[in-house]
Amino acid sequence: IGNCEKLRSMSLPNSQINKFTIVDCEELTSIDISNTAKLVELRLDGCPNLLTLNMRQVNSPTLINLDLTTVPILEELNVANTSFLEYITFADNFSSLKVFDMRNSVLKSIRFGKRGDFPTYLDLSPFEMTSVSFYNCPSLQEIRGIDYDGSGEGMFYNCYNLHTVQGNLTLRGNINQIC
After folding, report:
1. I need a labelling partner for 146 at 20 to 30 A (CA). Which of 54, 93, 108, 153 fits?
2. What is the mean pLDDT of the chain?
3. Stretch 146-163: mean pLDDT, rounded?
4. What is the per-residue DSSP string for 64-118?
């Protein structure tokens, strides 16, 4: 899909697409490709106003690395219930993410820019989160730079390999339900 000047939202949940490419859709603000089990390639170029990307339950064994370097103002990212996605790359100065749902995922790391290897930790330092969930993320070992003040219910439940959380974290709710 390309050069769609007036396209603002794309909703294709439960679709059978295997390659998804969007080029030069400058007014596009929202994409929902949730439950797209056969997706093996995602390419987003020229979508400078994309605010929301829903990839919940995209479970392709070949989609391990998600490149989001061309979406400069993304605020909401849902990668919950993804069984293979391990890495996300954002642009060097990316800082707009506010809502991040990675429940039941195997995500290990985020990097900024394409230089170098992925760090061994999840770097959330550029973000001021309003909503975040790590519920049942067994691959997650370390979180750095988290800035979050909100509900902590079940936030780290079943994150049994998580050994370090570093940053500004204020959790509200039932403390027994956090881990």
Report:
1. 54
2. 86
3. 82
4. -EEEETT-TT--EEE-TT-SS--EEEE-TT-----EEE-TT----EEEESSSSPP
